[in-house]
Design a protein that fits this description.
- 26% of the residues lie in helices and 28% in strands.
- It contains 10 helices and 18 strands.
- The strands form 4 sheets. Strands 7-6-5-4-3-1-18 form a 7-stranded mixed sheet. Strands 8-9-10-13-14-15-17 form a 7-stranded mixed sheet.
- A hairpin with a 3-residue loop joins strand 8 and strand 9.
- Helix 9 packs parallel to helix 10.
- It is globular.
- The chain starts with a strand and ends with a strand.
- The relative contact order is 0.15.
Length: 299
Amino acid sequence: MEIVFLGTGGAMPTRDRSLPSIVVRRESEIFMFDCGECTQRQMAAAKLGFNRKMKILISHMHGDHVFGLPGLLQSMSFLGRQKKLDIYGPEGIADFVDAMNRTVRFNQRFPTEIHEVQSGTIIDEDEYTIEAAKLEHGALCLGFALIEKNKPGRFDPTKARALGVPEGPLWKKLQSGKAAAGPRGVIKPSQIMGPPRRGLKIAYITDTRPCNASIEISRKATVLMHDCTFDSTRSEQAKEYGHSTAEEAATLARDADVDKLVLIHISAIYEDASPLLEEAKTIFQNTTLASDLMKLKVR
C-alpha cells in the first residue's frame, strides 16, 4: 500500500499546506480520507487518476473536510469518469451531496452511492475491512481504520516440486489457499505454505481530543495518521476546539502500540511545524511530520 498526503493542514489553507485529504492506494483501488477544497488539484499533481475504483470516507461535516467534494465530482465528470463512486460519512453527508446536485448544475456521468455510517464495521470486503469509531470533537466526527485481513503464508516452490506439483495453475490454486489434486494425491496449502501473515492496518484519526475510541481503533496500526493541530504550549486551545497536541498524539501512538505515527492537520499558525515533530519524538520516536504530496510506502 501507499499513502499519498494531498492536504495536511487544517481549518485554513496556507501556501504550503492544503486542506485535509489523504489517499491510500491499495492494488487497483484508492481510498480517500476527507476531501478539503482543491483536492482535485492535488490529485492531479500526485497523478492519481480520476477513473479508478474509489471510496471516499468523510470524517465529519466541518467545511475544511468536505468542501472539496463539489469540485472533485465536477472534475471527475469533466474527465469522463464512468466508474461508480462510494461516499461514506456521518449523518448529513447525504443531504450535503443532494444539495450540491440540486443547486450546482453539471452533467454527472457516473453513479454515486452515499452511505451514512456510525461506529463499527462499515465496509467488509474479501481482503479488507474498514472500521469507524466516534471521536471527541464536539460535532460528530469519525475515525477510520483500513484493516487488511490475514494473508496466506509464503509459498515454498521447493516443497511444491518435492511433492510433484507442476508449476502453473496448481501453484496459483495452492497460493490462494485451496487444496489441489497433484500427481501423488491431494495437496493441502499447509504442506507448502508458511504461516498466515498479518495484514497491514492504517488508521486515520483527525479532529479529536485524546479518547479511548481513538486508542482502540488505532491499536497495533502499521501507520497511524493523527491530528496534531497544536503544540503543548497551546493545550488550552486544543481543548477548546476539540483537537490534539503533538504530545497527545505521540502518547496515544505509544499507548496504542502502533508501528509508525504521522502527524497531520497542522494549524496554519505554524509556518515552521518542526517543533511539533520534535515534541512528538520525545515520546514516540518513529514519528513523521506529513507534508503536502508526500508519499509513504507501507509494507
